[in-house]
Amino acid sequence: MKQILLIGTGGTIASKESENGLVPAISADEILSFIPEVRDLCRITAYQLFNLDSTNMTPENWIGIADFIRDNYEIYDGFVITHGTDTMSYSVAALSYLIQNSRKPIVFTGSQKSIYERDSDARNNLLNAFIFASDDDAFGVRLVFDNKILIGTRTRKTHTKSFNAFESIDYPSVGIFRDHRIIYYIKEEKPEGDVRFFSSLNSNIFLLKLIPGLDEKIFGYIRENYDGVVIESFGVGGVPSYPSENYSREIEKMIRKGITIIMATQVPYEGSDIELYQVGYHLKERFDLLEASTMTLETSVVKLMWVLAQTRDKDEIRRLFYTPIDKDILI
């Protein structure tokens, strides 16, 4: 039987009612008691790493999860991480960069309702996560939720309450579950070579969502306080050219200071293409900005954190950002 490590981090799946609303309070061992049938599938060790509402999750927590897996990587055949849904897309993307080339499955799951509730999705998601973590063909950082298996770098939470909370953006699901049996849509060979662990992220990143009429003074604040910025623009990308190219001048000041700028889009599907319209073309021509292209917004932010922790050299930043890692950018 496979040896699987369950890592509890909190979230709705581990929550109980309090006088102030749901709060994580259930241990990883207690969560396991709700799916006794899993004991016939694999041998499980449960460990409570922390117990957080995922709104309180930080890059330091992501590093903590990755370091804990690194310390136990040779002991176990797979890993299941229970996590809150609100920031799970960021966390599963972060682990995709902190743990690369893993031949073992590292599986995130959670739920939209506490495992204590009778009509919860928690038991189904959790059992499926262990089934996938125990499968001989499973590998890499994945999200198992609502009978779907998603690549970590392609996920986004699209529903706040429904059980079908996550979608794979611009990439197919790896597979699905039917009656707790895996049906693969995409079946790939496991990666060659050794697993690679990283233990640093530069979280000094700002995500700027453009809105019509946004005062360009915000760029000055970013310039003085951050190492990188992801600009979440309209449509395929670009920035307003009013008034008098003020946005472009502010972007030039940031570039001169050595701040890395990524142009992204507020639109979930089909990615950015900032050269398509004049409002983006002049930026690409003048500054040769990096752009998220087909990356999800969550992945763009986290990958920039990872890249800037590895280097501050402009050419190396470009190379690393555009190097595909586990289907994060489709080129």
Write the layout of secondary structure elements.
Elements: E1 3-10, E2 15-18, E3 21-24, H1 28-32, E4 43-52, H2 59-72, E5 78-82, H3 88-98, E6 99-100, E7 105-109, H4 122-133, E8 140-145, E9 148-151, E10 155-157, E11 166-168, E12 175-178, E13 181-184, E14 196-197, E15 205-209, H5 217-225, E16 228-233, H6 246-256, E17 260-265, H7 278-287, E18 290-291, H8 297-310, H9 314-322
Parallel strand pairs: 1-4, 1-5, 5-7, 7-8, 15-16, 16-17, 17-18
Antiparallel strand pairs: 2-3, 6-14, 8-9, 9-12, 10-11, 12-13
Helix pairs in contact: 2-3, 3-8, 5-6
Describe this structure in words.
By secondary structure, the chain is of the alpha/beta class. The chain has 2 domains: 3-197, Rossmann fold (3-Layer(aba) Sandwich), CATH 3.40.50.1170; 205-322, Rossmann fold. It contains 9 helices and 18 strands. The chain has helices at residues 28-32, 59-72, 88-98, 122-133, 217-225, 246-256, 278-287, 297-310, 314-322; strands at 3-10, 15-18, 21-24, 43-52, 78-82, 99-100, 105-109, 140-145, 148-151, 155-157, 166-168, 175-178, 181-184, 196-197, 205-209, 228-233, 260-265, 290-291. The strands form 5 sheets. The protein has an 8-stranded mixed sheet with strand order 4-1-5-7-8-9-12-13, sandwiched between helices. The protein has a 4-stranded parallel sheet with strand order 15-16-17-18, sandwiched between helices. The chain has a two-stranded antiparallel ribbon with strand order 2-3. Strand 2 and strand 3 (21-24) form a beta hairpin. Helix 3 runs parallel beside helix 8 (297-310). The model has no long low-confidence stretch (mean pLDDT 95).
